[in-house]
Specification:
binds coenzyme A; 8 strands
Length: 182
């Protein structure tokens, strides 16, 4: 078992995904058109897509100090969504988050991002960044509540395959300096 495979907050458990999570991930958020509208990955159309995500999670956990996490409610263990850290270099990582629709509006994304920032701090990340569509207000509000600074607009940077596929769109770039290099 690696360090930080499971982390708890007041209301949430963030944990490494397992192969037996496939059906719940698909049912709770990965197949939902509204939930996946502003995401960079295509909505899952079958359990095979979700198995592909879980294989990717394993590779990420082998490649970096940590990787993707599932977010569960501490009260009852319900799957709420996912988040994680993706390492571009040992000091630079990206993050993101997605929650099932019935979990929106409770501050869970903010609570989960604060936990991710703490994991980033413990794994020696210096720069933690996130990208989001400028119309995704809930997402950039979460980043701002967690102290991320808006660095600017990356013009024609990212595709949103569940919204308007085949065309790159402007995205907001946010970052947080987690550890100052010594
Ligand atoms: C983005 C997402 C994770 C936010 O989750 P959440 O748990 O509802 O977020 P929080 O409750 O922690 O915070 C959301 C903030 O945005 C605000 N907000 C939400 N919708 C808003 C809107 N349409 N306009 C303005 N503010 C909005 C909330 O009021 C809250 O701010 P506040 O605490 O100052 O009131 C969730 O909506 C989601 O999973 N969306 C689909 C996937 C997605 O877009 N992921 C991000 C990709 S970059």
């Amino acid at each position: 078992m690696k360090n930080h495979e499971q982390v708890e907050t007041d209301r949430l458990i963030l944990r490494r995904p397992h192969s037996n999570d496939v059906q719940r991930i698909y049912d709770r958020y990965a197949h939902d058109p509204e939930v996946t509208r502003w995401l960079a990955w295509p909505r899952h159309e079958s359990l095979e897509d979700t198995r592909g995500f879980l294989a990717f999670c394993d590779l990420e956990w082998q490649r970096g100090p940590v990787g993707p996490y599932l977010i569960e409610s501490r009260a009852g263990g319900r799957l709420l969504g996912s988040t994680g850290l993706s390492f571009e270099t040992p000091y630079r990582a990206m993050t993101g988050y997605v929650l099932a629709k019935d979990a929106w509006g409770n501050g869970f994304a903010t609570e989960s991002l604060r936990a991710i920032v703490e994991i980033a701090r413990r794994t020696n990340v210096v720069r933690l960044a996130a990208l989001c569509h400028e119309m995704n207000t809930a997402s950039w509000r979460v980043l701002e509540k967690c102290g991320f600074a808006r660095e600017g607009v990356l013009r024609r940077h990212s595709e949103f395959p569940n919204w308007k596929p085949g065309e790159p769109w402007n995205v907001l770039c946010y970052s947080l300096v987690v550890n100052e290099p010594t």
